[in-house]
Structure formats: C-alpha cells, structure tokens
Design goal:
This protein has 660 residues and is an alpha+beta fold. The protein is built from 20 helices and ten strands. A hairpin with a 2-residue loop joins strand 2 and strand 3. Helix 1 packs across helix 5. The longest helix has 54 residues.
Amino acid sequence: MNNRFFSSLALRNIKSNKQLYIPYLLSSTIIIMMFYLMASLLTNKFVQERSSSLATLFLYGTVVIGIFSVIFILYTNSFLIKRRKKEIGLYGILGLEKKHVAKILFFETVFTSLLSIAAGLLSGFIFGRLFFMLLNYLLRLPIDITYSTSGVTMLATIALFSGIFGIMFLYNVSQFTFANPIKLLKGKQEGEKEPKGSMILFVLSLVFLGWGYSISVTIPDPLAAISNFFLAVLLVIVGTYLLFISGSIFILKALKKNKRIYYQPGAFISISGMLYRMKQNAVGLANICILASMVIIAVSTTVTIFIGSEETLENRYPFENNVTLFGEVENLEKMNKRFFEFQDDLWKTVEANGLEITENKSYRQLSLFGRLQENEFVFDGNLAEPEKSILLMVLPLEDFNEMTGKSITLEDGEALYYHSTTTDKKESLTIGAETYQLTQVENEIDGNMELTESLALVVPEVSHLLEISKKLKEQFPESNYLTIDAHIGWNTSGTEEKKEVLAKQLENQYGWNAGENSLYESRLLQREEWYSLNGGFLFLGVFLGLLFTMGTVLITYFKQISEGFDDREKFQIMQKVGLDKELIEESTRAQIVWMFLLPIVIATIHVSFAYPIVRKLLLIFGVTNEITWLLSFIGVVFAFAASYWIIYRLTSRVYYSIVK
C-alpha cells in the first residue's frame, strides 16, 4: 500500500469526524494566530526602540502564550483521540498493521497541522493591523506603530507548533501501539470507574488553598508581594485540582448516602452519572476554574492600571518637576548652604524659561536602613540583610511644617512618628544613642512609604540629622549608607511647550548622567513612557484574557461532546426501560448547571482571597484608588459570568443534540 492510499484515508477520516475536527482546527488556528501576533509585537522595531520595558512585557506574554499553547493543544487532542479509539481498533480488526495505522495518523497530523499553521499565520497577518490600531490607541504615541513581521517570527511560530503537533502525534501513536485492538474497540465505552474518596487528598487540598490564601491575606508590603505572588498562585492551582478531584467526590458520596435526596429519579441519574466519571470531570472543571481566575485577575488588574494611569503617574511623581539632591555628611553649614543655593538656582532657571511656580515642596531627609528591636532602631551599616531591613526617614520639624502647612512645636527629646505597616503606638525610639519621646501622626511625607515597611521620624532641628549620622558614622566607619538628601518638587504655570523645554534643560543639568550628584524627574517627560507601559499592560491583559476565555470555551465544548457521546447510549437504555425524555433532560440539566456554576463560584472565591496581594502589587504601579479596582473586578466578574453563561447555553445544546 502506497502513501497515496494512507493520505486519502486520512482525509476521509477528518471529513467523517468533522464535528470533532472543526472546533479542534479552529482552536489551533486561533492559538497560532495569537502567538504569532504577540511575537510580532515582541520583534517590532518601533516597540523595541520606544520602550525597553514594553518589549520585556511582551516577551513575558509570548512565553505565557507559548506554554499555554502546548498545554491546550495536547489537552484538546486527548478528547479527540478518545473518540477515535474505536475507529483505530477497527483498523486492527480489518487487518491493518500498527505501522499502517501510524501512517494514517501521521498524515492526519500533517494535514491538520499544516492547515492550522497556515491559517494561523494568515489570520495573524490579516488581523495584525487591527491589533496594532488598538495598540496605537492604547499607547497614545505621537507616531503610530506600523505593523511588521519578520522571517524569524514566522520561523519561530512554525518551529514551536510543529514541535507541539509532533509531540501530539507521538502521544496518539502511543495510545494504540501497546493496546489490544479488541480493547480499543470498547475504548470509548469504558467509562471511568467510581473513584475512591481520599481523605488525604481532601485535607491536602485544604492545606494548599489555606496556605495560598494566607500568603495573600498576610502579605506585609508590595515588595514582598512580588516574591510571594507566584508561590501563592502555584499553591492555589495545586489546591484547586486536589479540591475538585477529592472534595467533589466526598460531596457526591455524601449526597448518595442521603436517601431523601438520592432516591429521586432525577437526582439518582445525575449524581450517579457524575460520580461515575468524576475523576475526568474534576480535571476539566479545575481547568475551567483556573482559566476563569486568570481571566478575572489579568483583565481587572490591567484595566485598573490603565484607567488610573494619570492618577498613578501623579502618585509616582507628586509634582511636575521632582529633584533629589544627594548630600554628604560633613557639617550643618555646608549642607544648608548647598541645599538653599541649589534651590535658588532652580527657581532662577524656572524664571528664565518664562514660567511661574504655583506650588512647591522641599525637605531634607536622613535615610537609614535597619530593623526595630523593641524601642530601638538598629542601623544596618552595610545593608547585610536587605530583605529584613526597613527604611527610616528622619526629617527636621522645620521642613515638615513647611510642606504640611502645620505649626507643630517639639521640645528636645520629642519627635513625631509614623510606621507604615503597624498601628502599634510606640512611646519612645532610640537611634544613634539619642532617645525620642514619640507622638504618632499620619503619613504626609511620601506616598512611596507604603511600598515597603517604612518609618518616618520628625525631629526638632535639622542639626539632629547631622548628629545622628555622625554618631552612626563613628560606629560604622565603613558604611556607605549615611547621607542627608534633599527632595524638591514644584509645579509651574505656562504652556506645555515651555514646560517641556524646562524639563529637558533640567534633565541635562541634573539627570543621572550630568555628574551633579542629583536626580531630576519630570512628570511631563515620563508621561509618554508611562502610558506606553500601562497601555502595554492593558493590551497584554485583554490579549491573555481573550486567550484564556477561548480556552474555557473550547474545553467546555470538548467536554460536552465527550460527555454527550458517553451518555447517549446510557440514556437510550434508560428510555427503553421506561424513563421519559423530560426526566432525562431534567437530570442532565442539573448535571450541566452544576458543572457550569461550580468553576465560576470557586474562581470568584480565589480572586476574592487574591485581593490583598493584588492590591499590594497595584501599589507598585501607583494605584491607590480601591474603588477603581473594585469596580473593575466586579465588572470583569459579571462580564465573564455572562460570557460563560452564553458558553453554557451553546455547548449544552450540543450535548442535548448528541444525547437525543
């Protein structure tokens, strides 16, 4: 037999199984298209030149889509090959050798993979311009990004998905290589055995979920949230799988033991049917639950970041112009002279550019890293344990009163005190052999103090900053972390053009590369980069949200098809023994509704517990408005629930049509 015979047989098999192959080909095409589009963003010359952070962001997105593509295509293929087992077994009965069957599967894989890859690349090219139009709108750049692709992007896409389809082919061949043809003939009729409930797995599921939830709820600050977020996600994913596999079995067996519930015709059919195949159902439900959680978190957080772009920009840069003057520990006279002369030079530069200062704030600050031991701040001279260190900001009362508009007075030995992560009221604090009696105040100094555990101490005179630093310098002569810095911020009135000229001039004079031991930051100059980054986050969040929603649709669809074929013969037998169609539909509807509701309910619980850690992560982006996040979260939950309800309605019709 020649290859033409096997290839024609493979084409006929695909046509005869079009109810399975059409959704499979569509899903593969969409996955390939989305990967190709994201890779195009990654390699786009304009994106790379415009924003390095945006290119890195799209790199992460490309990796995520690539990993999801492997998992998703292999997962959907497992449903398809399950339905083909009887057909493959029949080939063996008719006399075809296993190498002949392997050839048929090889040609089927070649045809489907070539069609999917070609359609995916073509779709990516056609819809690329539309996606780039959306990206241009989100990024608000003065020059539009032109859609471009490269041979490297195309080859990478072809190589990745050729590898995936190759793995899929090997998996399909392995399904019949070591199997008996007679057993394959009965393969799809062999249902899952009733799983045994495991108390150990059930307890482990609660432990993993509780551990993941506790990390989120007890996370101390945003910087800790970064390092713990992925651990919490991993724990919740593992706990979700174990919960669906073990917890659902316990619930169904408990319902089965309840005679009042179980010995009802509808409940009897639905509970028995779900329990009989619960192991397979549980994995599918867990997948849907995890995908739903990813959609809600990805879309709601990125929408929140983008909606609050201007607010977060203002939180990151409190004034239009912001200068940090890094000082030296020498003497009070030299420090004050440098501070005031530097400020005078700034005001003269502003005036020379035809602008008028409308609002300003300036203060001097001694920044120290260390840890609290009872009522003493222990300075970490060499920052040996940065993960355990907290930041202490020491400010003079003169500067604190000026920037807050207050007229507080302090005696020697008294100080104002703020601690970002605790409400414990300390009565005294010792630092550098100086002890201060404390009065607690609110944070009116720096919004960035909320990013990590921080302390603020307002002392009576600026000379105290110098005395504290000198005493610590004596104890730690090798330390490089003892400087008194000055922060100056101001807004101006005038045209945007004049403000931009001033910003660029000051950036050249006092930027990192100017050699003035200072740092100038302009909100105006950073706005474009900021919107680029936030627009990129929104684009990536919506992109991944669509990807995971598509995964939910297709997993649900394949699940309904698989369940429909498995249930069809059983319900035909039930009708023959006297059960009417209305009762059968009622029992199946209960099963499908349960499968519909459970993942979205558990996903909502997951995201609710994820709120604290996501809230901390949003602070890194300067998002402080909880109402924006809450409204985005609620809106995405309802939007996804509505989409999921549509999925349920459409896929349930497929199920009923197969069963009937």
